[in-house]
Design a protein that fits this description.
Cytidine Deaminase, domain 2; 6 helices; 19% strand; globular; binds zinc ion
């Protein structure tokens, strides 16, 4: 299984958010080549500004493994994490994070002035599906601006 395959799974989650009228961001947590948690942005549906895709996928993964740490897991997420999610990822000690597209507006980098808030053992990579993710987000905001959502 490739990074591309798992990022496509995260994109599938992002499309669920899109269909629900949520900012289209999706995430999956993978361990041993298997998806053990998935999530998509549900801030509007749950009226909860912490209901980011990463948080939901992490909680699902903790439940699946019965563990509060994810040292051997990888998070695939379609957009660069925000500072809150970076904090949650820090505490999870997740082994690796792959994100598809950079977020110039709300990323952790913006909040920390470039400081790396992740666990020192966490590998951070930018991954496949960059254009696909950006395109979906762009389409979402265009449609919303045009009042068609
Ligand atoms: Zn977040």
């Amino acid at each position: 299984m490739t990074d591309e395959f798992f990022m496509q799974q995260a994109m599938r989650e992002a499309r669920k958010a899109f269909d629900d009228g949520e900012v289209p961001i999706g995430a999956v947590v993978v361990a041993n080549n298997q998806v053990i948690g998935r999530g998509y942005n549900q801030v509007e549906k749950l009226n909860d500004c912490t209901a980011h895709a990463e948080m939901i996928a992490l909680t699902a993964a903790f439940n699946y493994l019965g563990s509060k740490y994810l040292m051997d897991a990888t998070l695939f997420v379609t957009l660069e994490p925000c500072l809150m999610c970076a904090g949650a990822l820090y505490w999870s000690k997740i082994g690796r994070i792959v994100y598809a597209a950079a977020d110039e507006k709300n990323s952790y980098r913006r909040s920390t002035g470039g400081h790396n808030p992740f666990h020192p053992k966490t590998k951070l990579e930018t991954g496949p599906c960059t254009e696909e993710s950006l395109q979906l987000i762009k389409t979402f905001f265009l449609q919303r601006r045009n009042g068609s959502m």
